């Protein structure tokens, strides 16, 4: 069974997730840690629970979701995967990071790309990938059907949606991604978003003002 641990990192209050199962193998999703205290919080959790990180996977490549990728990748000597369409977003981060006060950003090397229909495996567990652009052009979500949850990044929030005014964003595409991809999941699926608290598909179908 997959255990999900969330951390709130950096001034954008970004949610980083560590997923692990009974084997101890783990994947790290969207490591947004930046300062020493945040890295220590992440590393202490991994050490305390005797976890073995095997991969970094990102929903997308906006600055708040990639700040810690390079350091975490080096710490555990593990590969980093992203959707190919978001590679230009990743490469752009170094050009504007200092504008937000992030003067120590290191651009990570991408080791592999994934696309919709691919599967991310760790231990005895797996996540299937949905392509859900709109907030970012190469945005994906990670779904586990057995436990009915989605690691959704910045697509669907509790009674809100991801912003679409950034480069590559599109409100029309985002709403279509939610309606044709996420809202085809059962109402009981929990959505672990890139910001704020978790929600469920059923709650958002009934209560999200952007989708009613």
TrEMBL record:
<keyword id="KW-0862">Zinc</keyword>
<keyword id="KW-0378">Hydrolase</keyword>
<keyword id="KW-0479">Metal-binding</keyword>
<dbReference type="InterPro" id="IPR001279">
    <property type="entry name" value="Metallo-B-lactamas"/>
</dbReference>
<dbReference type="GO" id="GO:0016787">
    <property type="term" value="F:hydrolase activity"/>
</dbReference>
<dbReference type="InterPro" id="IPR051453">
    <property type="entry name" value="MBL_Glyoxalase_II"/>
</dbReference>
<dbReference type="Pfam" id="PF00753">
    <property type="entry name" value="Lactamase_B"/>
</dbReference>
<dbReference type="GO" id="GO:0046872">
    <property type="term" value="F:metal ion binding"/>
</dbReference>
<protein>
    <submittedName>
        <fullName>MBL fold metallo-hydrolase</fullName>
    </submittedName>
</protein>
<dbReference type="InterPro" id="IPR036866">
    <property type="entry name" value="RibonucZ/Hydroxyglut_hydro"/>
</dbReference>
<feature type="domain" description="Metallo-beta-lactamase">
    <location>
        <begin position="13"/>
        <end position="195"/>
    </location>
</feature>
């Amino acid at each position: 069974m997959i255990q999900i641990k969330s951390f709130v990192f950096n001034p954008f209050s970004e949610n980083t997730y560590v997923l692990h199962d009974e084997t101890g193998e783990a994947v790290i999703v969207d490591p947004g840690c930046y300062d020493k205290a945040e890295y220590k919080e992440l590393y202490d959790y991994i050490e305390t629970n005797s976890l073995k990180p095997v991969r970094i996977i990102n929903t997308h490549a906006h600055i708040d979701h990639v700040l810690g990728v390079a350091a975490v990748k080096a710490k555990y000597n593990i590969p980093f995967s992203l959707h190919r369409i978001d590679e230009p977003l990743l490469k752009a981060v170094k050009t504007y990071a200092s504008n937000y006060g992030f003067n120590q950003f290191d651009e990570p090397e991408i080791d592999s790309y994934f696309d919709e229909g691919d599967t991310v495996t760790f231990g005895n567990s797996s996540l299937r990938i949905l392509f859900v652009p709109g907030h970012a052009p190469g945005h994906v979500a990670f779904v586990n059907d057995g436990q009915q949850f989605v690691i959704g990044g910045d697509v669907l929030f509790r009674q809100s949606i991801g912003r679409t005014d950034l480069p590559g964003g599109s409100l029309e595409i985002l709403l279509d991604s939610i309606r044709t991809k996420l809202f085809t999941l059962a109402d009981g699926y929990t959505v672990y978003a890139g910001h704020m608290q978790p929600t469920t598909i059923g709650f958002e179908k009934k209560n999200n003002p952007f989708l009613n």
